[in-house]
Amino acid sequence: MPLITSCPECNTQFVVKKEQLKAYDGQVRCGTCQHVFNAKEYLVKQSRSKKVTPTKVEAVLSDISLNPDTQTLPTEHIEMTAPDALQAQFNQDAPTEPATQEDTTAETQAATGTAHTPSFLNDLAIDEPVAKPLRRVPFSWPLFGLSLFLLLVLLVQGIYFKRTEIAAYYPQTKPWLTQACQYAKCTIALPNNIDLLTIDDSDMQEHLTYAQVLVFSSTLINHADFPQAYPNIELTLTNVDDEPVLRRTLKPADYIHQAASTDSGIAAKEEVRIKLQLNTSDIAVAGYRVALHYP
User: Fold this and answer.
1) How far apart are the first and last CA of the chain?
2) Are 40 and 26 in contact, with CB atoms under 8 Å apart?
């Protein structure tokens, strides 16, 4: 007498054999909804008085082994026939589930014999451009000579525009620069870094002999490690409200009486004492301001 079991999920009935139940302790898979259940627990009781006409069912019962060491038995295909009327009624009563996109894809791949390629294999399959090896350019003597010439021109331009600073920081190069300037029609002037010059110890007094004459005295200090050109001294006289009433710009020739000293500039770390007499006429002077600058 055949055994009939019913799927607890979709109520589909299947004909099973005792050998199948013994193989894996009754564990089977429904061929309709793929649910795994114990066929022994859902056996359908059959009446002896009424002959049960089996329904044409086509399902694959996949046995599941609880022992990982046991090999999977081959899947058995069971097919039974029934009258057309019963088959039509069974098809109406049996629940149907809409096929998902994954099932449709799986069926299409199974029909075409192709398998889904994992995403990491797709990434490896992308055609990536292979870097071509760099082609070695043959050496060109004309191009090398042109590059060397342009580099030399750039160096000469830098020396020309920075000749004053070069001569100040590297005094041993000054004779060569002076000789080169004879051909280039240029001169090497003294540096004029106003930040390295200060005027200190300033004082303004009335002349002891002459009226309306003021005596200005101060000290000019060069803090640089090289000689610098003498700056212009701007002297501003103010009234009692600290408003300018007289301003004079004193050039190096006005406060340095030796022309040779003016041309050679103020030496490195040198202090030069300055003393001037100013005629104020009838202007009332109460104070003064002094500043240094280059023309």
Assistant:
1) 126
2) yes
Q: What are phi and psi of 233, to 5 degrees?
A: -110, 120
pLDDT the model gives residue 37: 83
Q: Please name the amino acid found at residue 21.
A: L
Q: List, for residues 81-127, the tens digit of each pLDDT value.
A: 445 554 555 555 555 555 455 555 555 555 454 445 455 444 444 45
Distance separating alpha carbons of residues 20 and 74, to the nearest angstrom: 11
CA dihedral 23, 25, 30, 34 (to 10 degrees): -100
CA distance 73 to 26: 13
Question: Which has the closest alpha carbon to 202: 213, 217, 221?
Answer: 217
Phi then psi for residue 87, to 5 deg, are -65, -40
pLDDT digits (tens, 9 = 90+) for 146-203: 999 999 999 999 999 999 999 998 989 989 999 999 988 899 999 999 999 999 888 8
The pair of structure tokens assigned to 48 is: 């002896």
pTM for this entry: 0.47
**Residue 170 one-letter amino acid:** Y
| Token pair belonging to 286 | 């109460």
For residue 13, give the nearest of 31, 36, 25, 34 by alpha carbon.
31
222 bridge partner residues: 197
DSSP bridge pairs for 247: 236
Among 256, 249, 255, 219, which Cα is nearest to 234's? 249
Q: Domain boundaries in the chain? A: 3-97, 146-184, 194-293
- Of 3.40.1350.10, 2.60.40.3230, 2.60.120.460, 3.40.50.2300, the CATH number of 194-293 is 2.60.40.3230
